[in-house]
Amino acid sequence: MRCCIVPGAPYSPQRPTSSRNDPLRGPQLRQKKTVLAKLECLDNGKPIDETEWDLDDCAGPHAASWARPSSLSPPLLASSTHNLTRPCCARPPAGCFDYYADLAERLDEAEVVDVGMEEFKARVVQEPIGVVALVTPWNYPLLMACWKVAPALAAGCCAVLKPSEVCSVTCLELGQIASEVKLPNGVFNVIPGLGAECGAALVGCPGVHKVSFTGSVSTGRAISMTCASNLVPCTMELGGKSALIVFEDADVDKAVEWCMFGVFWTCGQICSATSRLLVHESIAQRFYRKLRERAEAIRIGDPTEKGVRLGALVNRGQYAKVLGHIREALEDGGTLLTGGKRPPHMARGYFVEPTVFVNVRPGHRLWRTEVFGPVLACCTFRGEEEAVRLANDSEFGLAGAVCSEDVARCERVVRALECGITWINCSQPCFCQLPWGGVKRSGFGRDLGTYGLSGYLSPKQITTYVSKDTWDWFPEEQRRAKL
Ligand code: NAD
Fold first, then answer.
1. What's domain 243-424's superfamily in CATH?
2. Is 137 in the pocket of ligand 1 (CB under 6 A)?
């Protein structure tokens, strides 16, 4: 397949910010949130309450809904810091498009730089990097796309989005909205298709100036190699196997709730899942008792029903993969605390119970491999140094979390964790204002925050010689002497 970058598309380094993603910040995207959330739920299998959150993060909450989070059940309200659950904040939290549209308003201001020589005046202006290829996964189909599309358009780039073939519906809808809001033709393009065909053709296309990828390590490696051979910059948001460390002084009830949120939310199909639990040996038995009781009470069911907290895995392949990990751990003598099978009341569909293995050996595959399902691997530790060493003993470095009442200890631990995202006394909260990305095999570069925007910009220096004198490096006397 040949990839088509529309010739003559209105990409121009000089395009003013007024034409950037303002059209998408308006009410059009917000008006379709309910429909998009339903489509995402049906396409992906995650609970409707979660896809509604995702849409808030894309488009911002409805003005009325952010202050009145009545659609969520009380236990989740009490514990989560997600946008919708912050009724006390002074203004509605921004969606991704609004956030980047606001940032873009400052992009036309040149940065004046004092270079220390009065003969020169210098400025730095930010120009769009060009045509960007955005390749995204299926676990947050629209949200992962918006994390890239919004800053790319805000920067003034032309974007070509290749959503996952597993869940493309809402990204295609975003393309439709872009045309309804009269984004100029060619500025935003959606090309659905298989990774090895459509995705590979796109990232290798000579007209692409930058690739931003979110997905698995193996695909990231293949795309990085293409980018290296074309000398095209790329951003890689890859997998993870993040740790949650719970110290003996932690509030156990709160820590158990965050532990469950960290690995069962989105059915565990989340790159930043804290799917490894390190719990201090002195509280381990108490922690496990509560965890089991709470995990067995999670409402599993039809993802379109309000209040359901665990939906179905995305497809048959993912279901087989997750059950394969569980089977292997059992065959290796793993100790199952709870779960491990299809929920008895869900005869059909790709449902897996919230699953917890305890006393997992840190060398075991379950401890080291990204399962991408509702499966938690637990082990105990005796001291802070051991906990940090075990947490860092991973090829991944996306996220890490610590629960403790000791503020100084929390600070020491998050600074020692080898990863790009850290949480203290929580797990998973995500805000578009903060950089998102990892180290080691979890990738490089960042989505979100100002870092997410700068990845789509190319700084240009403009240096002006303002002195009335000649520069005089080749002095006039030398010329005369030669005559
Ligand atoms: P994947 O790598 O299979 O696919 C991701 C995208 O790449 C899809 O659009 C796919 O079609 C495309 N693709 C596949 N092969 C390609 C190729 N050769 N060339 C170009 N494109 C190609 O990943 P997935 O299964 O969709 O997503 C799950 C993975 O994504 C997990 O490992 C998860 O941790 C990771 N993820 C990471 C983050 C993060 O922010 N770090 C966020 C979400 C998901």
1. Aldehyde Dehydrogenase; Chain A, domain 2 (3.40.309.10)
2. yes
